[in-house]
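User: Second chain of the day. Same drill as before.
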Amino acid sequence: MAKALIIIGSTGSIGSQALDVCERLNIRVVGLAAGSNISVLEKQARKYNPLIVAVMDPEKGSDLKQRLSDTPIKVVYGLEGIIELAEFPGADTVLTSVVGIAGLIPTIKAIESGKNIALANKETLVTAGRLVMEAAKSRNIRIMPVDSEHSALFQSMSGNRKQDIEKLILTASGGPFRGFTSEQLKEVTIEQALKHPNWTMGSKITIDSATMMNKGLEVIEAKWLFDIDLPGIEVLIHPQSIIHSMVSYVDGSIIAQMGVPDMRIPIQYALTWPCRVKNNIERVDFCKINTFTFEKPDIKVFRCLSFAYKAAEIGGSMPSAMNAANEVAVSLFLQGQIKFMDIMDIIENVMDNHKVIVDPSLDDIIDVDRWAREEVMRLYSLRKH
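Assistant: Same format as last time:
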């Protein structure tokens, strides 16, 4: 069980819920980090009294330093500050819940400093799965999944041998546009895309769920977390979001993990493993939810899922290029600059234009990420003209 925690991405949905879990379980919060939301970060710092806080935005970080000058809390900022936070002594676990590739370097630095990882940042393993898992293995570091699907897989594997696994089944709600045709998707609005039917999440992840890129990223994350080849990872639409994922075994048995769609459950399990701790979170009432339905995802309409499988199959630097293209395209959509279906077109074009590096270093991955972001903007500029 974690005793002292650093949260990178504390002002987001996962980070905020993790703080609630820490408060209830009496886990010491040693450090907090955010991108730029210093108003929320200041409130969190005053409430939880960490030893250190970090802000990615240097200007906002300098402002926060002034705001917290009446406290003994150390304030650092910029990438160097986030790294200092990740390496800060006195914590045994780092929860990385920041969105996007921004979580990669701090996660690696936390691993290198000997801290266990509670991982809520898919992009870390999507972009650099081999490097991260090798670093963790060499230092005997535990990476505990926080995503509900990967937590479910982890729990469903407990007590069983890896060689007995037939396949992993990642469930997906289908998002707000389940059953839509390509024609219907052409006219969806930002407001519609942000209305997830079951989960409350940040805007970027919510859009990823609507395009099904989120599930594609989870497929790649599962490949690295559990060392399972792509043919052994299946995605299944389960609109009720009660079964969070399943593991099918060679004898025909299927073990599923269930619960209400509440991220505090997998967050708590990642922080208390191997123990389970009582809480007051709502329980599933099977008499009210008396029907479970399943269907295959429509990868012809929701092409992002097929992009992720393709990127993972090609390997090397391709997942990094795909991920960066998605991050920028989603941002453009949320700004009202492109339409929903343009997200998929842009990602496909960037992947087509990318020259794959077979065995990328960390520097290569960062360079590819930068190239892909620039390529998206180049393509966007061409579209405008």
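The longest strand covers residues 165-172.

User: Great, on to the next one.
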